[in-house]
Design goal:
Strand content: 5-15%
Strand order of the largest sheet: 3-2-1-4-5-6-7
Number of strands: 13
Radius of gyration: 22 Å
Largest sheet: 7 strands, parallel
Order of helices and strands: EHEEHHEHEHEHEHEHHEHEHEHEHEHHH
Distance between the termini: 15 Å
Length: 436
């Protein structure tokens, strides 16, 4: 069985989505599956990853760069939200993409494809190759008329339109509705199966008008369990230059200015935690906040506790050390397909306090692996942090063990690969049965 993964990039430079797609590709190869990857921007020197720009037609390249300029103009001119994506409308043709392959795949897995190919391109690839397509959602974009994240808008349940993220250009027949119509036609006219990484995504997918009638699968993202694993806390703190005698609360983000990352709620939760601990001065004084991300961003936040910045942590080993050195990881995201940091922390055996969204619904259980607070409720989040920090040694050790066990059960790469392999075989066999 030949599998082709499609992603805008193979790894690095764009957040966890690219790493996740490349990791699945490599893990499938390790499992003996004939896997290739096709990307717009190749960062690795992996011979199993093909760079589409190396053989795409000149016209395709001109269209691509023209689209980038047009998108920048529209965002600036009409005050579009940064979470709204303008489809490239077949910038790269399906035939151009396929001609660089040694042969047609039996199945195609689409990952983060924004800025590279569209739903129309996927439909064309399905028609040309006959290969079923799995669309692995890295965010909400596949099920909307352009929003990577919808917040409280429910337009995706109908036909989009009057999109609150389109600034001055919204209306019943706005860009979101037009893109919805193209995507609806493409998805409904192709053999496309949506795959999500969390029950939170699945809940929204089941309400999606674009994927109405399509069967869907839930397959959590897999991680390197030999890197993201429990480690002696003292050793991890020595590695990062952190003190041994403090209660460490860890948090981080690529960009804390993103509204959906919820850092305003985190600051408020920490302020309330400080007040909550007035009867426990020794615990309050022992707390040390540790963050990972752009230092200049965190400098702008006013925390009530001592705060140390690690900056960007280069590589998984350094990132894992931050979880391993911490007593609790706090994720204040209010809308997120993951975030991956929850998976990573859970695998490291570090309890998580987060809001009720994303992968937290599958991994964070109050009293078992951390505390899942009410969405956007800073007070509840402060209570959650307090509940974890005040655990005695026996109960805290049990919670750490629970985290690791749940992580291995849901986030082991072998679990992800087996689930994908089984689904691929099922769809390929069904394809053969109906003679496609």
């Amino acid at each position: 069985m030949k599998v082709l993964h499609i992603s805008a990039q193979d790894r690095g430079g764009g957040g966890g989505s690219f790493e996740a797609s490349y990791r699945l590709h490599r893990n499938m190869l390790s499992a003996g599956i004939d896997s290739q990857m096709l990307v717009l921007n190749k960062s690795s020197n992996d011979v199993t990853v093909l760079n589409a720009t190396s053989y795409s037609q000149l016209l395709d390249k001109i269209k691509f760069y023209w689209h980038k300029l047009k998108r920048k103009y529209l965002i600036k001119r009409y005050d579009f939200s940064g979470y709204f994506y303008i489809d490239s409308q077949s910038v790269v043709s399906a035939s151009s993409l396929l001609k660089g392959l040694s042969g047609y795949p039996d199945i195609i897995v689409a990952h983060w494809i924004s800025g590279f190919v569209t739903s129309e391109t996927l439909r064309e690839m399905n028609i040309i190759t006959g290969a079923p397509i799995l669309w692995y959602f890295m965010d909400m974009a596949p099920m909307t008329g352009g929003c990577h994240y919808m917040f409280e808008c429910e337009g995706y349940k109908n036909q989009c339109g009057s999109c609150p993220q389109l600034g001055t250009k919204k209306g019943d027949n706005d860009l979101s509705h037009k893109q919805w119509a193209r995507k609806f036609q493409s998805v409904q006219g192709a053999n496309i199966t949506p795959v999500v990484a969390s029950s939170w995504q699945r809940e929204m997918l089941l309400s999606s008008s674009i994927f109405a009638g399509k069967s869907c699968k839930t397959i959590p993202l897999g991680l390197n369990v030999n890197v993201f694993q429990p480690r002696n806390q003292v050793e991890a703190r020595d590695f990062l230059g952190l003190p041994h005698d403090r209660k460490i609360i860890f948090f981080g983000a690529m960009n804390m200015h993103e509204e959906r990352k919820g850092f305003v709620y985190l600051v408020n939760a920490l302020i309330e935690l400080y007040e909550l601990l007035y009867k426990y001065p020794s615990l309050r004084e022992s707390i040390l906040l540790v963050s990972a991300g752009k230092k200049k961003h965190f400098n702008e936040l006013k925390f009530p506790f001592e705060h140390r910045e690690l900056g960007f942590l280069s590589g998984d080993v350094a990132l894992a050390s931050a979880y391993q050195a911490s007593d609790v990881f706090v994720c204040p995201s209010i809308e997120d397909a993951g975030p991956m940091m929850i998976n990573e922390s859970i695998l490291c055996g570090t309890p998580v306090v987060s809001f009720d969204m994303g992968i937290a619904r599958d991994l964070v259980y109050t009293g078992k692996t951390g505390y899942r607070a009410k969405l956007r409720d800073s007070t509840d989040m402060s209570v959650g942090i307090y509940e974890v920090l005040k655990l005695d040694d026996v109960r805290y050790k049990l919670m750490r063990n629970n985290c690791r066990n749940m992580g291995l059960e849901l986030c082991h790469p072998d679990v992800q690969v087996r689930a994908f392999s089984s689904l691929c075989v099922e769809l390929v066999n069904l394809n053969l049965k109906i003679g496609r």
